[in-house]
Amino acid sequence: MSGVRENKCRLRRFLAIILCYGVMACAIRQSENAGINAETQLTRAQWHARLNWDVSDCPLASPDEAGPGVVMHGFGADSRIIEVQCERWAYQGSYLFYLDKDGAITQLSFEQFEAPDAGRLERYHSALVTGLPSVIADEQALDVFRKYRGIGDCGQFLRYRIEAHAAVLKQLRVRDCEALPADKPIDTQEWPLKNPDEEK
Asked: Cβ distance 151 to 181 under 8 Å?
């Protein structure tokens, strides 16, 4: 009988430990969710106070009438990308991006190219990105589709990888506009591939 009682005591202790871990895990999830939910309720002004962007590049007024114009993207186990929409135009907009790694926030800067004439690119660096961005979390990448005109049959496609708190340009594709627009958009992966190092 003593053996039966001892086994029952062990079972009770085991169940108590499992219950304790379950309660702790639930509390941690609730705490994390509370933090996330609190951030989703931040106003544009509160985000600006946290990120301190230059209002001459990115207005304090949100271009999104329904919210602050700030989106958070999961970006690995301990990181995320904070996307701030600055302006919205007819077919694209301007954006700022921040890497938040374990609470340490870094504004990202991007190697980019102006196109003053067909076949000519001029390099510049800026935190302000113009185009249609897409965060690709599983590849630690950020794609930017920069249209030269609304239909999207010409422009630039840029792919960046986020490496050591920096955005590194990995792919540049450019298609110049023809006199007449195409009947439909052309897949950017079919556009001519450029070597960024060969551009000015």
From this structure: yes
